Each structure stands twice: as structure tokens, then as C-alpha cells.
Amino acid sequence: MSLWKNLKYVLSDEMNGLLHLLSKNYNKRSLTNEKDLHEALEQLDRILDSQDAFLDHSNKAVNEVQESRTDLAKVITQCDAVAERCEDLAGQCDAVLKQVDAIASKEPEITAGEIERIVSEAVAKPSERTMQQYQILSARLKEIYQLIDAQNHKDGQPDVNELLTRIDVLEQENASYKSRLTQIEEEFEQAKSSYLEVSNQYKEEKRKTFDLSKRLVQADDKIKLLSGRIKDQALEDMLTVKGERDPFTIDSNRDRYLITVNNLSKTVAKFSNMAGLNSFFESVPDNDPYKKMYAGFVRGIRNAAAKVSSRDDIGNVLNSFVAVVQNDLVNKLIVAVYRGMKNKKSDYEEQMLAAINQYLESVGFYSRNIQVGELLKKEDYDDMEVIKGERSEGKQRGEITEIELYPYYINYVDKGGRQRSVHTHGMMTVCA
User: Disulfide: which of 60, 241, 383, 408 matches 365 by Cβ 3.0-4.6 Å?
Assistant: First the structure.
């Protein structure tokens, strides 16, 4: 700005001089004066144009200077810092020069190496300001150490030395634990190896056991097949033993005619009275197959009894009850008992068969007199299902080899006084 002001004053003085010259010569109306005046005016125009251009450049320069003021301030700050550093270096150099002068005055023939050493020591020697900073930092560190010592000696808080001692003890214990852990890991690896060995042995034994069980199952199947054949023959021999009674036969009521038109209600009551069978099945679990079959038979008898009327024919009533006995008792329960006893004789099934026979006998049933070993007769087709079996050695064609179901009969007297009977159907096998 000072430069601009000086230039402005210079230009103003020159313009004033030209104006003064112009006014001085204005009254002198000579051609020479006019020429000079014309030249002065041209010179004035040129100066004014130069002044305008200079003003434009000056404004731009002012704007640039104002915009870079911040940068200049930063540069000035850095220059101040450099200047301070230079002052320090200058002070150090002065000190070095003084020492050199002193040494030179004492020892004029000092070598260049000695001068270099002295200069290096002087430069390396910290300045007074640096020493002050070092002193301040040292005092601050002393205060921090004093504060730490005060904290360590407070009541109820451990001392640093005590903590270090405890750390040493803990490190020793940790080393001991690591040693024990290593020992335990070794023992674990040994136990793991032993376990794997035993596990492999167990798997091998299990495989052998599985192979053995397969062989046992195959042998058991063969044994069952052979035992089935043996049991068939044994049951046949048992049933044909002279003087031994077949448990599936009922001998009483064969020649008795107790059921008549007059005692129809009594007959219905006999069919409905299953106290003996109920007593037997009370202790049998509900999921037992025999008990489920028996429950179906009880429902069939109750339904048949509910349909009976006093005006019904005695023969029709008996046929309805016999149909229930055939379907639900003989074809299911007695067949199951026979086959179970054929495979394996058990007290449970023998007691069940005894209870069934007692019920049938109390109602009035009896089994037709037929035995294994007899020859097939024509009338056997009336109440038996005949199955042709294989020819056995020592057996005749048509010889009865097995009776799976006996036909059960019940006698009655119809309203005309005639003796009649109704029966279930049995099943037997004969030699082809």
C-alpha cells in the first residue's frame, strides 16, 4: 500500500506540472505553443492510460496480497521459528568462535582435526534453553515418581515390591501347573490309546458276535423247521395214544336233549353266562391277542341274545348262537389255542382251553367222536373241512393224520317233539 501511495503522489505531481504548463502557455496563442500544448495533451492522455492500467494491476495485486495474508502469516510464524533456531545456532557459533579464538591465542598451531572436535562438542552441547526444558522435564518426572511412591505406600494397598514377589510366586506355581498339565496330557494320551485299542477289540468282537448271531438265527430257523415236523408227529402220537383223552374233545351231552321250546329263555341265559371265561380273562392284559378275540365273541353272543324273542323258533335261535360260536370262538380262539399248543405246550393255553370247554359243556355242546388214524368217511364231509396232505410212510390213502378243529354239536327238541341237533364245522387233514 505504501508503494501505491508513493506512485500516486508522483503521478499527481507530474499531472499538476503538465496542467500548470498547459495553463501557462494557454494565453500564448502561437503555433509553437499550440504544438507544444498538443504534445502535452497527448502525453497527458498516455499518462492517464498508464495510470488506469497501473490501477487495474494494483487492484489485482492488492486482492492477491489479501488472499495470501493467511499463508504469509504462516510463513512469518515459520520464519520466526527459523529465526529463533538461527539465533540459537548463532549463539553456539559465537561460543565456538570464542573458544577457537581462545585456543588460537594460546596455541596458534592448532590442527584442523582439533578444531573439528571442538566444533562438534560445542554443537552437541545443548543450549541454555534446551537445558531449561530438560530441567523442567526432570522436575516433572521427580513429581511423578513421588506421586507413585505416595500411592504405593497408602494404607491397605500392596507395595510394588510385594506385588513383584507375588508375581514371582505365581510364575513358579504356573510353571508347576504347566508341568502337571503336561503329565496329565501324557496320561490322557495313554488312556486314549488304550481306549482306542479296547474299542477296536470291542468292534471286532461285536462283528464276530453279529456273524455268530446270524448263524444262530439260521440254525434256529432250521431247528424250528425240524421241530415243527417233530411236533406234528409228536402231537399226532400224543392224540393217538390209547387211553389218553384229547383236550379239545367234549364227551358229555352226547345223548342228552335238554333244550326244548319251553326252556328257550333258559337256553339264552346259558349262552350269555360266561362267568368262567370272564374270571379267566380278568387277569389277562387288555393287549393280549387271546383277550381281544374273546371280547369279539362276547359282543357276538350279546347281540344274538338281544335279538331273541319268545315267539322265535328254537332251531333258528340255536342256529344264530352256533354261528357266533363258529365264527368268533372256534375259527379264531380255539384255532389259535390249538396252533399255540402245537408249537409249544403252555399252562396258560391249557387253562384257557379248559375254561372254553367248560363254557361249551355248560351250554350243551359236545364234540363228534372222531380220531386220528381212522379212515375218511363219506359223512365226514358233512361237518368237516377235509384237507389233502402229503403221503406219509406207513399211512393209508384217506387216513386221518390231523384234526385241527372238532365239530361241536348241540341237541334240542323242536316244537313237533322231534330230536334234532345243530353243529359247527371242524377241519382235518387226510393222507392223499
Answer: 408
